[in-house]
From TrEMBL:
PANTHER family: AROGENATE DEHYDROGENASE-RELATED (PTHR43207), PREPHENATE DEHYDROGENASE (PTHR43207:SF11). Residues 11-271 form the Prephenate/arogenate dehydrogenase domain. InterPro entries: 6-PGluconate_DH-like_C_sf, NAD(P)-bd_dom_sf, PDH_N, Prephen_DH, TYRAAT1/2, TYRAAT2_C. GO terms for molecular function: arogenate dehydrogenase (NADP+) activity; NAD+ binding; prephenate dehydrogenase (NAD+) activity; prephenate dehydrogenase (NADP+) activity. One of its GO terms (biological process) is tyrosine biosynthetic process. Residues 235-269 form a coiled coil. Keywords: Coiled coil, Oxidoreductase. This is Prephenate/arogenate dehydrogenase domain-containing protein.
Length: 271
């Protein structure tokens, strides 16, 4: 058990969507002494058995197990379908719902619309994953927004999971997050995808800058295209940033063409 586990009370956490990211978060939560259960479209019974997690194929049975926290680890594109299909009447008591999506206004509005009025809502974005967080979470950013919280103790205990691992804790609104993420995360993914379309590869004379671009391309294409499209479809600020990127490329191109024309004109005069 990690030394940080003593700084927060043990929680019973149910994970919805036990894919790569859900598994990644689960390992640290188990190490901290929290009790985990899971449900997912894919049957992860064997993996959960190895990890000491009870797995439920039936969502109704999952919801009826009296959890402190339900952690939504679905993809951005599938969140609405998953949440709307959950038989929420099976819940035993008011529960804290937490999402970890890379966009924030979308889950906020959906959860406020669909969840029972007595369910608390915490929207979060761990700004790291299995690759960047493989050696621990210290100094990695964890963003959160207390959308609707009545049970402060449970909410604080959940947030403490990340604080006790040394994360940089950033509380901001879902709108602020999506504005910032459109300028940073979405643009990063977009540049990586563009480089992949160009099929850039290492050469014998790579500069450090080009090596960084190749690494960016490889990192971004390592993420699912569903994640990339979700960053665009469900972040209303991403469209403007894509237009800004297009405009910037056009301005750079125009400047280069203008300089080339001036240089060629000067050469003709000199000759």
């Amino acid at each position: 058990m990690s030394t940080s586990s003593s700084s927060s009370q043990s929680l019973k956490i149910g994970i919805v969507g036990f894919g790569t990211f859900g598994q990644f978060l689960a390992k640290t939560m188990i190490n901290q002494g929290h009790t985990l259960i899971a449900t997912s479209r894919t049957d992860y019974s064997e993996l959960c058995l190895q990890m000491g997690i009870q797995f439920f194929r039936d969502v109704s049975e999952f919801l009826a197990t009296d959890m402190d926290v339900i952690l939504l680890c679905t993809s951005i594109l599938s969140l609405s379908k998953v949440v709307r299909s959950m038989p929420l009447t099976s819940l035993k008591r008011p529960t804290l719902f937490v999402d970890v999506l890379s966009v924030k206004e979308h889950p906020r509005e959906l959860l406020l619309q669909v969840l029972p009025e007595d369910s608390d809502i915490l929207c979060t974005h761990p700004m790291f994953g299995p690759v960047s967080g493989k050696n621990g979470w210290k100094d990695l950013t964890f963003m959160y927004d207390k959308v609707r919280i009545r049970d402060e103790a449970t909410c604080s205990n959940f947030i403490q999971i990340f604080a006790s691992e040394g994360c940089k804790m950033v509380e901001m609104s879902c709108e602020e997050h999506d504005k910032a993420a459109a300028k940073s995360q979405f643009i990063t993914h977009t540049i990586g995808r563009i480089l992949a379309e160009m099929d850039i590869k290492s050469t014998p004379i790579d500069t450090k800058g080009f090596q960084a671009l190749v690494q960016l391309k490889e990192t971004m294409v390592g993420n699912s295209f569903d994640l990339f499209s979700g960053l665009f479809v469900h972040n209303r600020f991403a469209r403007q940033e894509l237009e800004n990127l297009e405009d910037a490329l056009e301005k750079v191109k125009e400047t280069l063409v203008q300089m080339m024309n001036e240089e060629q004109g000067q050469e003709r005069k000199d000759s």
